[in-house]
């Protein structure tokens, strides 16, 4: 069984998830932010290797830890949704970091891969993915067992931000239809910001019509 550990990043209040299994020495990361807590967790839990990084999208608050992680784990694979996502790793306008005072460019590109619709993280542990544009053109959601990682496409209690580069209400509306099909299947939503929640009991209309009390890139 896959275990997920949520780390709340200090800089931008985004979520990083560590995916692990009891009998596996390697881990996977979702949306790396602060690197040191990840290093600490790996050491404290007797893990040895970072197998890969899964990016729900390439906005700066979800990728800013990648370079530091690659320094320690240079063979680590980085997964993005599509060519737009690949460009977001180096385009500071597209990833939004141009306006933060700390432009973020991912320095090593040899290990970039595109998500496959289905791929194995460990033997007999399958990830399924679907590109869900609306927040950005590289937004992707993926499922591992009963876990559904949504990035900023679906955040508990908040309207999804679309008034940014690559955002689209029309595309988001289409993407939300997929979540409706996944309701009733017992998924725990692991969003890019905020706490996890039960998809089966959630009002998906909030993503389109709800009000935002904070901004999430």
Structure write-up:
With about 220 residues, the protein is of the alpha/beta class. The protein has a single domain, classed as Ribonuclease Z/Hydroxyacylglutathione hydrolase-like (Metallo-beta-lactamase, Chain A, 4-Layer Sandwich). It contains 5 helices and 12 strands. A 6-stranded mixed beta sheet has the order 1-2-3-4-5-6. A 6-stranded mixed beta sheet has the order 7-8-9-10-11-12, with no helix packed on it. Strand 2 and strand 3 (about 25-30) form a beta hairpin. The mean pLDDT is about 95.
Features:
217 residues, alpha/beta, Metallo-beta-lactamase, Chain A, six-stranded mixed sheet, 12 strands, globular
Number of domain units: 1
Secondary-structure element pattern, one letter each: EEEHEHEHEEEEEHEEH
According to CATH, what is the topology? Metallo-beta-lactamase, Chain A
CATH level-four homologous superfamily name: Ribonuclease Z/Hydroxyacylglutathione hydrolase-like
Q: Provide the CATH architecture.
A: 4-Layer Sandwich
Uncertain segments: none
Helix-strand category:
alpha/beta
Short description:
With 217 residues, the protein is of the alpha/beta class. The protein has a single domain (3-209), classed as 4-Layer Sandwich (Metallo-beta-lactamase, Chain A), CATH 3.60.15.
Please give the structural blueprint.
Elements: E1 3-8, E2 15-20, E3 26-30, H1 35-44, E4 49-54, H2 66-72, E5 77-80, H3 83-88, E6 112-114, E7 118-122, E8 125-131, E9 140-144, E10 147-151, H4 169-182, E11 188-191, E12 197-198, H5 206-209
Parallel strand pairs: 3-4, 4-5, 5-6, 10-11
Antiparallel strand pairs: 1-2, 2-3, 7-8, 8-9, 9-10, 11-12
């Amino acid at each position: 069984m896959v275990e997920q550990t949520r780390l709340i990043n200090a800089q931008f209040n985004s979520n990083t998830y560590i995916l692990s299994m009891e009998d596996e020495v390697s881990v996977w990361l979702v949306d790396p932010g602060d690197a040191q807590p990840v290093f600490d967790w790996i050491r404290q839990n007797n893990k040895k290797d970072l197998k890969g990084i899964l990016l729900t999208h390439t906005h700066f608050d979800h990728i800013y830890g990648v370079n530091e992680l690659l320094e320690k784990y240079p063979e680590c694979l980085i997964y993005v949704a599509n060519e737009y996502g690949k460009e977001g790793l180096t385009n500071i306008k597209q990833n939004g970091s141009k306006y933060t005072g700390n432009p973020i460019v991912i320095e090593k590109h040899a290990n970039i891969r595109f998500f496959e619709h289905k791929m194995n993280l460990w033997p007999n542990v399958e990830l399924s993915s679907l590109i869900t544009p609306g927040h950005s053109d590289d937004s992707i959601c993926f499922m591992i067992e009963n876990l559904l990682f949504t990035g900023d496409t679906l955040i508990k209690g908040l309207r999804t931000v679309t008034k940014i580069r690559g955002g689209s209400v029309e595309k988001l509306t289409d993407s939300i239809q997929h979540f409706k099909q996944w309701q009733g299947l017992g998924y725990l939503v692991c969003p890019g910001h905020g706490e996890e929640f039960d998809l089966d009991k959630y009002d998906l209309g909030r993503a389109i019509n709800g009000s935002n009390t904070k901004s999430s890139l």
